[in-house]
Amino acid sequence: MSASNVKVSDNMETKDLERLNRPASKTTSVPGTTMDAVFGEMTEDGPNYRGLGWFATSILMTKTMIGLGVLSIPAAFDVLGIIPGVICLLAIATITIWSMFVVGTFKLNHPEVYAIDDVGHKLFGATGRAIFGATFCIYWIFVSGSGKLSISIALNAISTHGTCTSVFVAVAAIVTFILTSIRTLARISWIAWVGLFSIMGAILTLTIAVGVQDRPASAPQQGAWKSDYELFKKPSFLEAVSAISAMVFAYSGTSAFFAIVAEMRDPRHYARSLTICQTIVTGTFLSIGVVVYYFCGSFVASPALGSAGALMKKVTYGLAIPGLFASTIILSHISSKYIFVRLLQGSHHLTANSFRHWATWLGCTFGATVTAYIIASAIPVFNDLVSLVGALLGTLMSFQPMGCMWLYDNWRRNNSERTAAWYFMVAWSMFVILSGTFLMIAGTYGSVVQVVNSYKLSGGSAAWSCVDNSDSV
């Protein structure tokens, strides 16, 4: 479907809601057979890729967003100060929430779109498909790598460095591979439920603990102590863009929503699921960012779960482990499913329980898991990895494409339809594209400098190290 075939009314929200009524699949004349624009012919003998209800979708969305990035937000506030931190967080939230809404409407305008590489093909042809597809795949594998790194930190914290850190990363990889290999999002939605309750319980416990504790774990343990939080701080340019990049990472689950809405039973409920998701996400991010930094000041840890003393560090990480595993599993599933669909799309093996189907699927999950394991072992500093991924790939997945997508579907209007609201949305879309490009370039430079400095401090010995990576958190 091209942009010229889409009639857009002056009221964007009303028209977008009307588009939610379009079915993305239909039942054929063969009983028990469904033809889907992405997955092709689905029968009762194969996996049901369209089994997600709207509430399970909201939980999957929320768990995709609340996981790894939230644990770096208090440290970002420590760089920026409380007031600039809140302003930057809300600004990023506004842009990404709009971007996520555009994902839903674009998917319904173009049911054949499965992932952001399809968007790239519509916008920029074969070159766009190649660039967006490679970026999407690399990004989610990098995020999965940061998930394995955070799991190793948690296991080190709980066990008081019970074994070599590389072993913990390997354990995270093995468990991730096993559960990632469940074939449909509907069948792993229970993992999202467990993970969401787990990470929210850990965050709530941490927030209470830092409020009642005498002082943070890394603060001087002798003498009087008072939090040194600041409303405004004066970071260098590189420090500021790195902190903002960490916030972008926290909100950068946008591109995964294509795959999630593609597996919904009824995509017209996407907006409902998104509203629930973002209400929980933004409230959680603001709460943990402000409260933890207010009580811990410059002694806040990253990941934040290590901020509340030695005992509470074990407790919070213990509560969080299922949530950290859930995030890593879901994100690994999304990247593996993307490769799987691209390899078998157009073939009956995509929806059949054939040997080729299973061999391809397990090969994808194994390959994605091993690659993420290598990333987690090679860049073992959590904050540096989060900032680098958020800057280099997170903006390109959450900002620029969505601005282009709105323009693609709405640019071709008659002069009589070009209202003030239309001009505002054109300006807004351009702002999203330009701001994302600036953050991508500046944030990547700042993050690379930080990674280089970390390697200088460790002499390069941190990669594949047995050293306790929870000591600094």
CATH first level: Mainly Alpha
- Order of strands in the sheet with most strands: 1-2-3
Our count of helices gives 15
Q: Could you tell me the number of beta strands?
A: 3
How helical, in percent, are the residues?
A: 55-70%
Biggest β-sheet strands, sense, barrel: 3 strands, antiparallel
Look at the structure and give the mean pLDDT: 84
Domain count, please report it. Answer: 1
- Architecture in CATH? Orthogonal Bundle
Taking the alpha carbons of the first and last residues, their distance comes to 50 Å
Low-confidence stretches: 1-23
Order of helical and strand elements: HEEEHHHHHHHHHHHHHH
The helix/strand class is mainly alpha
Shape summary = globular
Structural description of this entry:
The protein is mostly helical and 473 residues long. It has one domain: Hydantoin permease, CATH 1.10.4160.10. The protein is built from 15 helices and 3 strands. The chain has a 3-stranded antiparallel sheet, with no helix packed on it. Helix 2 packs parallel to helix 10 (270-296) and helix 4 packs antiparallel against helix 10. The longest helix has 44 residues, at 116-159. Pfam families: Aa_trans. This is Amino acid transporter transmembrane domain-containing protein. Belongs to the amino acid/polyamine transporter 2 family. Its main location: membrane.
